[in-house]
Write a structure and sequence with these properties.
The protein is α/β, with parallel strands linked by helices. Helices cover 45% and strands 16% of the residues. Strand 5 and strand 6 form a beta hairpin.
Length: 205
């Protein structure tokens, strides 16, 4: 399969690179303790954004995450771990949006996992703003857990990171950016998706 989106990705990268700095600067204001969920003011913004754009950033803990991902089988699932303070994450995220629009939603499921500080209301709002700007109309979650607990829970060493699961819900590919000069590319993600699409369907878990 030939993908005709490389030029659009380059333009999107330029736009995202410019916008990411405004989001990073906005995170300098005073933070608010959210406890185990987002604040009332953030919830109001979330509701408005969801109504206007259909884009949401769902806060949940590990237990809720397990419930949400219990139906991971049946589709190829591409899971992107990111944060607004991670510049490589921000730079490459628009390409993930492009990919989500390229593949049929009933064949490939795209999920983003934001690991910004869940106690920082401004960080949540900045993450939601960014998702809205890039048009990430797939599943977006923010884990209401400490970052180090998140890394341990998913076995991550760094971000950006992308994990790809087959139709049985088994992780088949893990792409990470441990070495900044040797980051994975979108071609790596495409190759993994195409390889899994070419395989016979496996039963759901």
């Amino acid at each position: 399969m030939t993908l005709n989106y490389k030029l659009s990705l380059k333009n999107t990268f330029l736009i995202s690179s410019l916008t990411c700095f405004s989001f990073l600067l906005s995170a300098c204001s005073e933070s608010t303790d959210l406890g185990n969920s987002i604040s009332e003011s953030a919830e109001e913004i979330r509701s408005e954004v969801a109504q206007e754009s259909g884009i949401d950033l769902i806060p949940l803990d590990f237990f809720e995450w397990d419930l949400q991902m219990s139906n991971i089988g049946g589709q190829i699932t591409v899971m992107d771990f990111w944060a607004t303070w991670c510049i490589p994450c921000i730079e490459r995220f628009p390409a993930m949006v492009e990919l989500s629009n390229h593949y049929p939603r009933d064949k490939v499921r795209f999920v983003s996992v934001n690991i910004d500080d869940f106690t920082d209301e401004d960080a949540y709002i900045s993450a939601l703003d960014f998702l809205t700007v890039v048009g990430a109309d797939f599943e977006n979650y923010q884990l209401q857990q400490d970052m180090f607990d998140i890394f341990n829970f998913f076995g991550l060493q760094s971000i950006p990171a992308v994990t790809i699961y087959d139709t049985s819900g088994t992780e088949q590919v893990r792409l990470t950016g441990i070495e900044p000069r040797d980051l994975f590319t979108e071609e790596d993600i495409v190759a993994a998706i195409e390889d899994l699409l070419a395989q016979p369907l496996t039963s759901e878990i």
